[in-house]
Amino acid sequence: MDTPLCRHAVGEPAEYAAQAVKLGLKEIGFSEHNPMPRDDFDDWHMSLGDLEEYIEKVARARRTHPGLRIGLALEVDYLPGHEDWIRELGARHPWDYLIGAVHYVSDSWDLDNPNKISQWKDRDPFEVWSAYFERLTMATESGLFEIIAHADLCKKFCFYPERDCTPLFTRFLKAARQKGVALELNTAGLRKDCKEIYPSPPIVRLAAQMGVPITFASDAHAPGEVGMNFAQAVELARNAGYTHCCRFAQRQRREAKF
Ligand SMILES: [Zn+2]
Ligand SMILES: [Zn+2]
User: Fold this and answer.
1) Prediction pTM value
2) Which strand ranges, in their side-by-side order, compose the sheet holding 214-217?
3) If you measure from the C-alpha of residue 158 to the centroid of ligand 2, how many angstroms do you get, rounded to a whole number?
4) Which pLDDT tens digit goes with each residue over 190-201?
5) pLDDT, tens digit, 9 for 90 and up, residues 21-49
6) Ligand showing the shortest atom-to-Cα distance for residue 112
7) Whose CB among 126, 207, 233, 258 lies 3.0–4.6 Å from 185's, allowing a Cys bridge?
8) What's the maximum distance between 2 C-alpha atoms anywhere in the chain?
């Protein structure tokens, strides 16, 4: 979940925590978009100078909601060449987990950005999906992350390839299995044009067959989105054969029945 420091989410962590308590959740986690090597990289990542404030905001939520376990994490954009920067960020604080995410399929195109939707129009969706999953697989293999975010974000605006993408999914999931990286079941997709949880049921079924661990995420950008549609995510996981999900503290994974 985000905070206002990324400039596209609203509400303080303490308000998200209050909502979680209301819903009866036992544990939540914040994963603000990481500071990029340059603050002017784009307009939706937190600035490096705000890192301490972010940590303090989450600490405040922990103080006001002592009965709720609150993870402190980052959603980190993976771009090839950023590995040292990501490692440095990872060492700056004892994070509970780092979520690796691919939004950028090139240095300048974040494919889920509504302001850049026109970039999709003159491209073959299969080429974009291939580039996206190539980076997602690299992120998974990098060993930098505990979890991979919204694994088929490329479906957000419904530019679906005509070709079968199963080999792309399989390669990515194989890397996740080998590296022990968890797949996030993210309900934010239901609130986008694609109207489907990230990732799609065929990917979740493949992941279950291959023994890839999972987490649940609402990707809330407002207090009212905390835990949104979790029942659907749980159903998706169960239908695929999952009985356990993972939790992370201090970058250590534990299995939990759900
Ligand atoms: Zn965000
Ligand atoms: Zn994301």
Assistant:
1) 0.98
2) 27-33, 69-77, 97-101, 147-148, 182-186, 214-217
3) 17
4) 999 999 999 999
5) 999 999 999 999 999 999 999 999 999 99
6) 2
7) 233
8) 51
